[in-house]
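Lab notebook, design round three. We kept the backbone fixed and only want residue identities now. Task for the bench partner: fill in a sequence for the structure below.
Input structure tokens:
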């Protein structure tokens, strides 16, 4: 008998999950633990791994809503008769999963029950950055004479939903159009990985934050010389290519591919800010390959973020305009000297780098809020985890750390801002070293 691939429950109130994309094709051979597909719920997006070895057949269409506990594919052994597609979606093709052409909604219509295919949910015209919207929202907007581009969506990844259009109509006027994300020349290639010399045992993998790079770990690394250190530069940062990233899930997928490519049996994972959010997402799908997890002022634990600071850093074209924003990252401004600012600006001299980061910020933090939520993932983590945060953090509120379950260690520092690994590097280095 084939092995069923069951739609998992990742949120307490989750009834169904939407298959966003398959990582493997029908008829491909997979091994237990291989990533099979991405699912999306109201609160999170995550990767689902294969429950066993076999050949994948009868996969549910991308964009289809699958009830929790229901099969969405089957794994067959070599030589096993595949036969017709079993229930519950026998005979349904990907085209069948798409909604009928949108009709004007009735007064009793439930706007949140729209079925949207994965292609529609992430639809973006690379030439025009067309706004994501459900077919029903587009129909309502067209009837009312509104431009979809003038609306701000509240759905997954900023998708405009019917309810968003109806809210605007009730208000009597459309919201102003958001600032268009900066255009940039997208590149291709693998993320940059650098390694320290020396060290033995389980390596420490480090992922930096937004508008930073792998060199930000230098002060902490002095305490970790007994272990091999591996640093990953995020897309559009450091030595990595300026990839086009359209969602947090896209970003995690790129970093996960790099992490998997390291071929490590196990690792200690350390992430700061945006890198902390990515590290948390990795721990959610790669728990078996992590010995410990350290999150330093991680993003993804609440909607609040200092959008003005992110925007200011991205826009700065001179040291004079960059300096004040860099000083907002720390509690003691004297740490950010004029020479440090000039050096940082020299690293940001490339207009295409600034444009790439501006666009990434617009995708991840639209209108100055965090568009991704990892609080449910935090509850699922069973890897030994510690969270480090400064109580004078002016970028991400330190009280987001209080969302952590009681099994996680919290290290909260008075008089420290958003960069504990720089502001109190000795203390942070000792904390990490004690667990690696």
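Proposed sequence:
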């Amino acid at each position: 008998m084939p092995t069923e691939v069951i739609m998992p429950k990742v949120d307490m109130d989750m009834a169904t999950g939407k298959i966003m994309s398959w990582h493997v094709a029908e008829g491909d051979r997979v091994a237990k633990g291989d990533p099979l597909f991405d699912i999306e719920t109201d609160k999170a997006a995550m990767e689902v791994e294969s429950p066993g070895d076999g050949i994948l057949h009868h996969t549910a269409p991308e964009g289809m809503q699958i009830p929790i506990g229901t099969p969405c594919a089957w794994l067959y052994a070599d030589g096993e008769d595949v036969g017709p597609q079993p229930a519950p979606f026998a005979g349904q093709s990907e085209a069948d999963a798409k909604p009928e052409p949108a009709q004007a909604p009735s007064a009793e219509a439930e706007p949140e029950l729209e079925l949207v295919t994965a292609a529609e949910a992430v639809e973006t015209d690379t030439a025009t950055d067309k706004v994501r919207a459900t077919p029903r929202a587009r129909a309502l907007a067209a009837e009312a004479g509104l431009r979809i581009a003038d609306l701000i969506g509240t759905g997954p990844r900023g998708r405009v939903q019917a309810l968003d259009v109806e809210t605007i109509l009730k208000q009597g006027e459309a919201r102003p159009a958001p600032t268009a994300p900066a255009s940039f020349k997208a590149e291709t290639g693998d993320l940059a990985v650098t390694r320290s010399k020396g060290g033995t045992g389980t390596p420490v993998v480090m992922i930096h934050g937004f508008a930073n790079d792998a060199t930000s770990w230098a002060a902490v690394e002095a305490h970790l010389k007994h272990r091999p250190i591996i640093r990953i530069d995020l897309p559009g940062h450091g030595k990595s290519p300026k990839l086009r990233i359209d969602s947090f899930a896209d970003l995690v997928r790129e970093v996960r591919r790099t992490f998997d490519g390291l071929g490590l049996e196990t690792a200690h994972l350390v992430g700061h800010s945006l890198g902390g959010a990515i590290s948390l997402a990795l721990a959610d799908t790669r728990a078996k390959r992590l010995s410990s997890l350290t999150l330093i002022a991680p993003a993804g634990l609440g909607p609040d973020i200092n959008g003005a600071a992110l925007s200011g850093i991205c826009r700065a074209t001179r040291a004079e305009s960059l300096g004040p924003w860099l000083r907002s990252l720390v509690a003691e401004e004297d740490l950010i000297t004029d020479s440090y600012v000039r050096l940082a600006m020299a690293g940001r001299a490339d207009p295409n780098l600034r444009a790439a980061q501006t666009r990434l910020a617009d995708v991840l933090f639209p209108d100055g809020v965090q568009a991704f939520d990892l609080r449910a993932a935090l509850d699922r983590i069973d890897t030994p985890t510690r969270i480090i945060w400064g109580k004078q953090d002016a970028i991400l509120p330190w009280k987001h750390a209080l969302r952590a379950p009681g099994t996680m260690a919290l290290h909260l520092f008075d008089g420290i801002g958003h960069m504990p690994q720089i502001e109190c590097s000795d203390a942070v280095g000792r904390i990490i070293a004690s667990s690696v």
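Keep this in mind before ordering anything: The first strand starts at residue 3 and ends at 6.
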